[in-house]
Amino acid sequence: MRSPVSDYLAEVLEGCAGDTSGANADYIPELARADSDRFAVAVATLTGYVHGAGDTDVMFTMQSISKPFVHALALQDRGLPAFLDKIDVEPSGEAFNELSLEEGTTRPRNPMINAGAITTSTLVGEPDSTLAHRWERILGGLSAFAGRELEVDEAVFSSELETAHRNLAIAHMLRGYDTITEDPEAVVANYTRQCSLRVTTRDLALMAATLANGGVQPLTGERVVDPPVVREVLSVMTTCGMYDAAGDWVTRVGIPAKSGVAGGIIGALPGQVGLAVFSPRLDEHGASVRGVRVCERLSQEMGMHLMEAPAPARSVLRESGVREVDGIGTAHVYALQGMLQFAGVEQVLHDLTEEPPSTPQVVLDLSQVYSVNSVGRRMLREAVRRLGLDGLTVHVVDPEGMLD
Ligand SMILES: NC(=O)CC[C@H](N)C(=O)O
């Protein structure tokens, strides 16, 4: 069978191809020269399979899509409190290249706007690392997210550095407030280098999938960053990733995302997929016009909006009743199923409180449970303990060690 997913993606591209509004970024001469008609979409699963349509293997530069990944590396290397000392996590509602700091402090408003991202690039590695080492860490870290060695597009890098007046102004402002302590020009060079890393739409989908997968690269199996780092990064992408269009994006698309001025956009849907689109013409917020359209369609048609919660799980209580159990005798059997989180386990605990087991022997059968989160586990353990205090004998059937 031919997978319908890639055919569907081709259909989405075709449907959005006609929109030729917007324009290539022109403040970076090399980007102005890029082929505006390129168009690609890729969806990477958490098992590492990439569905794609269009120019999925054409190279372009990451630009601001590098920001969430460098943010992740900085959090991994320094921890959240040290990071928050330097950079806030509030949406700025401003353009990405605004020369601004949070009112009354010396912190950039978030790590997705340039002021925050330039500062973030100085938080990668050890506090006393040289800028050269920081760059090695950025290159190695972003390559680990992609699952292959990335390279800098030297033409874009020098073109952008020659015209980086605004980013230099931002860096000098940051240096003036001691938010960064290194040479502002060298810091901007590192930041510009990270923006100039060459990727394909396919690479970006896999990088996004690494975030969707809790920090483990789906193809290489490497743990690139820890789950709490991913949670922080995806939260900031949700609120700040699309700059001054973030609110519009969250309501219409509802996928943690990041745009770049070369025309790429990534989206990471936790626990499901990583996606990426590429089309160089940009809207007034610096996001790809057709890229935004594709994301809107995917979100709507593939039910990917974060706030579109799955239908309430069927009861996690598969069976509750008294019967003969081998080796135990007459017992009240509670058989649970599926995925156990707060709401599901609460139902079971509620039943146990309202209608206590009708025999002194109780069997809690978890053999059909395939996952339990930490609150679900704690609640169930506590239930077992309390049933014991009530004088009941509880036999837990837990072949997969869900309660361990
Ligand atoms: N939004 C972007 O992609 C901006 C990135 C670009 N390198 C800049 O700093 O201006």
Automatic annotation (TrEMBL):
<dbReference type="InterPro" id="IPR015868">
    <property type="entry name" value="Glutaminase"/>
</dbReference>
<feature type="binding site">
    <location>
        <position position="160"/>
    </location>
    <ligand>
        <name>substrate</name>
    </ligand>
</feature>
<keyword id="KW-0378">Hydrolase</keyword>
<protein>
    <recommendedName>
        <fullName>Glutaminase</fullName>
        <ecNumber>3.5.1.2</ecNumber>
    </recommendedName>
</protein>
<dbReference type="Pfam" id="PF01740">
    <property type="entry name" value="STAS"/>
</dbReference>
<dbReference type="InterPro" id="IPR002645">
    <property type="entry name" value="STAS_dom"/>
</dbReference>
<dbReference type="GO" id="GO:0006537">
    <property type="term" value="P:glutamate biosynthetic process"/>
</dbReference>
<comment type="similarity">
    <text>Belongs to the glutaminase family.</text>
</comment>
<dbReference type="GO" id="GO:0004359">
    <property type="term" value="F:glutaminase activity"/>
</dbReference>
<feature type="binding site">
    <location>
        <position position="191"/>
    </location>
    <ligand>
        <name>substrate</name>
    </ligand>
</feature>
<dbReference type="GO" id="GO:0006543">
    <property type="term" value="P:L-glutamine catabolic process"/>
</dbReference>
<keyword id="KW-0007">Acetylation</keyword>
<feature type="binding site">
    <location>
        <position position="243"/>
    </location>
    <ligand>
        <name>substrate</name>
    </ligand>
</feature>
<dbReference type="Pfam" id="PF04960">
    <property type="entry name" value="Glutaminase"/>
</dbReference>
<feature type="binding site">
    <location>
        <position position="114"/>
    </location>
    <ligand>
        <name>substrate</name>
    </ligand>
</feature>
<feature type="binding site">
    <location>
        <position position="167"/>
    </location>
    <ligand>
        <name>substrate</name>
    </ligand>
</feature>
<feature type="binding site">
    <location>
        <position position="64"/>
    </location>
    <ligand>
        <name>substrate</name>
    </ligand>
</feature>
<feature type="binding site">
    <location>
        <position position="261"/>
    </location>
    <ligand>
        <name>substrate</name>
    </ligand>
</feature>
<dbReference type="InterPro" id="IPR012338">
    <property type="entry name" value="Beta-lactam/transpept-like"/>
</dbReference>
<dbReference type="InterPro" id="IPR036513">
    <property type="entry name" value="STAS_dom_sf"/>
</dbReference>
<feature type="domain" description="STAS">
    <location>
        <begin position="333"/>
        <end position="404"/>
    </location>
</feature>
<comment type="subunit">
    <text>Homotetramer.</text>
</comment>
